[in-house]
Amino acid sequence: MIIVMISIGFFLAFLAIHVIWWRTRLPSNTIRAIFRLYLVCMMVDVVILGAVTQNFAATLYGALIFALAGISYTITYTAVDSDSPTLMMVAELAARKDRGMSLEEMLDLVRVRPFVRSRVDQMLRDGMLVERGGRYALTDISSFSLTLFNTYRKLVNRGNMGG
Q1: Alpha carbon separation from 68 to 58, 71, 74 (Å, rounded)
Q2: pLDDT digits over 103-157, tens only?
Q3: Quick check: 49 and 58 in contact, CB under 8 A?
Q4: Which three-class secondary structure state does DSSP give residue 127?
Q5: Maximum distance among all alpha carbons in the chain?
C-alpha cells in the first residue's frame, strides 16, 4: 500500500507543480515542458520508492503506477491545451441548453471559429510544424507520429486520419 501512496503522492506533486508553473509562466513548448517535468518527478518517485522498499519489483510497480497516470494525464492535457471543433461544439451546445443546434449552425460554428490558427501556432511552438516561405510542413517527428497513428488506426479498422 505504501508503494501506491508514494506514487500517487508524487503524481499529485507533479500536477501541483504543473499548475503553479503554468499559472506563473506558460512555457513556449507546453508538451515538452510537461514531459520534462514528468520525467523529473518520475525519477524522484523511483529513487524514493527504491529507498523505502529496497525491492526492485516493488519499485518497478510504483514506477508503473506513476507512468500510467502520467501518460493518461498527458493525453488528456493535449485536449485541454488546444482548441478543437468537438470542444467548441460541445461548449456551444451546453450554452444553448434545450434549444440545441442544427447541423448548419454547427458547420457555421466550425467555419467562423479560429481553432485552426491557434492549433497551427501551437504546432509551431511544439516543434510539430516548420514554416518555410509562408508554407507549413511537418517535422520529422510529426511525420513519424503520423505513420504510427495511421498504422494503429488501420490495425483497429479506422483507416487513415482525415480519411
Answers
A1: 15, 5, 10
A2: 888 888 877 776 777 778 878 888 888 999 889 998 888 888 878 878 877 887 7
A3: yes
A4: coil
A5: 62
The structure's pTM equals 0.61
Helix, strand, coil percentages for the chain (3-state, nearest 5)? 75, 5, 20
Q: Find out whether 45 and 10 touch, Cβ atoms under 8 Å.
A: yes
How do strand 129-132 and strand 135-138 relate by DSSP bridges? antiparallel
Element (DSSP H or E) covering residue 136:
strand 135-138
Q: Side chain identity at 19, as an amino acid letter?
A: V
C-alpha–C-alpha distance, residues 129 and 135, integer Å: 10
- Model confidence pLDDT, tens digit, residues 81-118: 766 777 777 888 888 888 888 888 888 887 777 677 77
User: How is the chain split into domains, by residue range?
Assistant: 2-81
One-letter amino acid for residue 159 of the chain: G
- Three-state secondary-structure class, residue 139: coil
